[in-house]
Design goal:
355 residues, 19 strands, FAD/NAD(P)-binding domain, 6-stranded mixed beta sheet
């Protein structure tokens, strides 16, 4: 079959790889450059999603933990295991026993794909290792392992593989309209005809369907996640509660500096994708609560933002689903949602069921 794929982020690349694996002729369209939007503006983590356990998303976490291992094995230059510390205070929203149960479950769901099992840290040793860390009312510190990656370069590595395997990749080529029979029209006016067209445009997938007058049963909640980069070295990762809130944020090593994220702000598809001053202030304040190293706004040496296409399921964007849904309308197949770590599983599932 001739397959047309719209979207050159990590999900589009993985769908293309799976389609090529089944012997199909594949053409991929990307309106800009490959791996230049959401997929390159993540938290740089390969993880199962420890916090998704609170939402009962056990299958999602199990799948992500399996896929985490795949990506870690794919490139030792672009991925690495990372040890995380998870401190619990007297004021924390989550009790030590609740966190311990979650970590036991995380290890259990990982099974043979476990990197390193969680453990309860010796607080005195932890304080010696991180003397700048907030120790006031500290009850217990747990540690566990996940993965870290160079998201853009890892995606571009896959892009080179699919090109080598025969995928035709057209960058800077915007698809304007999809047609039920598998056709599509570009913004340039040029038309293509395929046996099937797969819409994997991420945050722009629903807008493309609307522009094409194709109905859908699924809607997206577009959530901007912003990050700041602080001029401060760090060797381990931290998952921390935002003071006074239920949500958590990450503090991560990043090329000799510290990456802090992320936020969750609703965004319209036509708005600029950039970190607001309010988001930068929010992340810096959360960081300052835990790290006593006098970091201020002048220490922020970079920032970035990406839009995540979540499935609408709750008024609170922190509770929107990171799972994915695949819909078919005629010969048009659309992917809604998904997360970086499970992109390969998404591509294989789509290929098995629809190609």
């Amino acid at each position: 079959m001739k397959i047309g794929i719209v979207g050159g982020g990590i999900n589009g690349l993985c769908v293309a790889s799976a389609a090529l694996g089944k012997g199909h002729e594949v053409t991929l369209f990307e309106r800009g450059s490959l791996m230049s939007e959401t997929s390159a503006n993540s938290s740089k983590l390969l993880h199962g999603g420890l916090r998704y356990l609170e939402q009962g998303k056990f299958q999602l976490v199990k799948e992500a933990l399996r896929e985490r291992k795949y990506w870690l094995n794919k490139s030792g230059d672009l991925t690495q295991p990372l040890r995380f510390y998870l401190p619990i205070y007297k004021t924390s929203k989550r009790s030590p026993w609740m966190v311990r149960i979650g970590l036991y479950l995380y290890d259990f769901l990982a099974g043979k794909y476990t990197i390193q099992r969680h453990k309860k840290e010796d607080i005195s040793q932890f304080v010696k290792q991180f003397p700048e860390f907030n120790q006031e009312d500290l009850l217990v510190v747990f540690s566990y392992s996940d993965g870290q990656m160079d998201d853009k370069r890892l995606g571009l590595l896959l892009a080179e593989e699919i090109k080598f395997n025969g995928c035709r990749v057209l960058e800077n080529t915007q698809v304007l309209t999809l047609f039920e029979d598998g056709g599509l029209e570009l913004a340039s006016g040029e038309s293509y005809q395929f046996d099937k067209v797969i819409n994997v445009a991420g945050p722009w997938s629903e807008a493309l369907l609307q522009r094409s007058n194709i109905s859908t049963q699924t809607n997206l909640d577009l959530i901007r996640g912003s990050h700041i980069i602080i001029k401060q070295s760090l060797e381990s990762g931290f998952i921390l509660e935002v003071p006074g809130e239920d949500r958590v944020f990450f503090v991560l090593p990043h090329h000799g500096k510290t990456l802090v994220g992320t936020t969750e702000v609703r965004q319209r598809i036509d708005e600029p994708i950039e970190a607001s001053q309010e988001e930068k202030d929010y992340l810096l304040k959360a960081y300052q609560h835990y790290f006593d190293n006098s970091a201020s706004e002048v220490n922020i040496v970079g920032n970035y933002a990406g839009v995540r296409p979540l499935l609408i399921s709750h008024k609170n964007p922190n509770k929107a689903s990171r799972e994915y849904v695949i819909e078919k309308y005629g010969e048009v197949i659309t992917v809604f949602g998904g997360k970086w770590t499970t992109s390969r599983a998404l591509g294989e599932k789509l290929a098995r069921k629809y190609l």
